[in-house]
Structure formats: structure tokens, C-alpha cells
């Protein structure tokens, strides 16, 4: 059996790995000219943890995990308000979760599939025709590829979804925020290794995150009605009055190698498959960073897709239907969580900000912290 996978991000690479383990041959088409890195830090766990364990990549992922020893909340001028310590942060993760950079998940997956799948960079799908026994896809390199299954893993703005399911506007639910993330050339001197600093004020959040191996990532998340335009340059207008490491991050924006900049939007797709074409990852559901589960759902979803195809050999439609019935409740729960969180994320009202941060403040107090650490701390 042969699969054409559109997209070499986390969802696409994880699907290629799992399908290879199920005996499939995979071709991956990726529009970027080369493998991308960076991205923001995520908490990886849940069904993603189980999927990574099933696929044999969990040790490699854990080797790239980073530990946050302090999370400091700051005022707009950079002065400290309060901070959470490493043990308290670890206590909130649970026994099967860890922090890792999105780009590092991709790197582990890429290393696992580069020898078993053909990957064509700078290549997109331009046309898709379904046949009784498979799919015929025309690619931008001029080739026409036949596959038993075409998998759209090409993210929020999926070309596969547009070609087969209809225009993006039919499925996109904007949550009223934008996000920008990029890697710093070097860690700022004022950011100790293993620490994160965060500022929230006036509908805006900024964070500088130490992500291990001498690297740091700048993160900006803000309400989109604050922004005058639709390019990363608007960060200078939105964040120009903030202090601490914000001016340094804005200066590095000018020369950053790769900037992720987009709206925070969900994809609410009524069916994830049409015939022999199926959507996975953000192309299908996109729970958003508000839910904090996208990478885990992508890896776990890929693992379950491979299992469904093995359970229903020779009957791809039945496999896809069983897979979606199994996974959709989890994705929809996380989407609902994301929609709830968006209402309290980076509030403009100072009082509401204080209320949303009150549980964190309590966790920073020694008696509460000791209670959390005693009852919840993960095994080291």
C-alpha cells in the first residue's frame, strides 16, 4: 500500500513513521525548501506520549526535553511580580508529560523517517482526482503520483483541504488573537538557563523562554484587534511600550531566520475524510495553542490512524471511519477548552488579569507549593 502525505510537519512525519511501521510505502511532499526548526515550546503528553512510545521515539523525544526551573511573571517594565519554582512547575505536568520545542519533535521524527520515506521539498499538490482504487495527485514538480491513500497534513492553511473539502473560510473559526514566535540568535544575558519570563498587559502577552542547549525563543500573543496590519512588523506597534527583554526581541525580529506569525484559529471540519483523502493534524482540527495539545494530538492521531489501517486491512474507508470515531471526541474536547481559554488569555482589564493569575500566585506561596509538590509532583 502506498500513501502520499502532504506536509512534513509533526503530523505528516508522525503519520509517515507509523504507516511505514504498518508496512506502507510513503511519499511526503513539503512546500518548504528544507526542514523547518524552532517554533514554540509545548507540553507533550497524553495520547501523544502513548503514541510516541508505541512508535519507539519516546526516548529520543525525552532526550530533547527541556526543564523550566523558574517561571517569572513580570510587570510591563520588567520588574518581577511573582515566580513559580521548578518543582511546582513539574508538579503540574503529570507523570507522562514533558516540555519540548516543536522543532525538536519534528527533528526526532525526521531522523526516524528520512531513510524510509521519500521526501520532496519545495513541492506542493496542485490537483487531486479520486479513483475507485486510489487517488491520483498532480504535484508542482510536474509529476503525477498514484496512491492508495492521500493524507493532508499541511497545517492550518491546508491546500489539500481546500482542493477536496472546500475553501478554508468554510471551516476556520478565528479566536481573535495573533501569535508570533521565533528563535533568538543567542540567549539574552538577562535570561538564566532553564528559566522563562512572561509579561501580560493590555491584551498582550510576551514570553522569553530558555528551551535548552543554549537556545531561547521569543513568544508574542495578543488580541488581533490591537494590531494595525497583518505582518510581523506590527509587533513593533503593539509591544513598543514594553520593557525588559521586549526591545531586544523586537530588534532581533528584523534578522530572525524563521518567524511563525499567524492568527490563532481552529479548524472545525465536519468529516476528516472524503473517499481516499484524509486530513490529519491542524489541517483537520487545529485545537490551537490555547488548548496546548496540538503536537500531542498530531502524534497520537498518527499512531491511531496506523492502528486503524492495520485493523481494517484492505478496507481503507472502514479504517478511516473507525479512526475518526475514536479520535474526534478527544479533538473536540480540546477545541472546547481552547475556546474557553481564549476569553481569559491576555485580558485587557487589569482586574481580570489579577484574577486569572491568582491561582498561579497562590501556587508560588510556600504552603500551597509544598501541598502541590507533595501530592502531584512527577517521579524524576
Automatic annotation (TrEMBL):
FAD-binding domain segment(s): 3-310
Establish whether keyword Oxidoreductase is in the entry: yes
Which InterPro entries does this one have?
A: FAD-bd (IPR002938), FAD/NAD-bd_sf (IPR036188), FAD_aromatic-hydroxylase (IPR051704)
Does this UniProt record's set of keywords contain Transferase?
no
Keywords noted in UniProt: Monooxygenase, Oxidoreductase
An example Gene Ontology molecular-function term: monooxygenase activity
- Output this protein's name: FAD-dependent monooxygenase
Organism annotation: Nonomuraea typhae
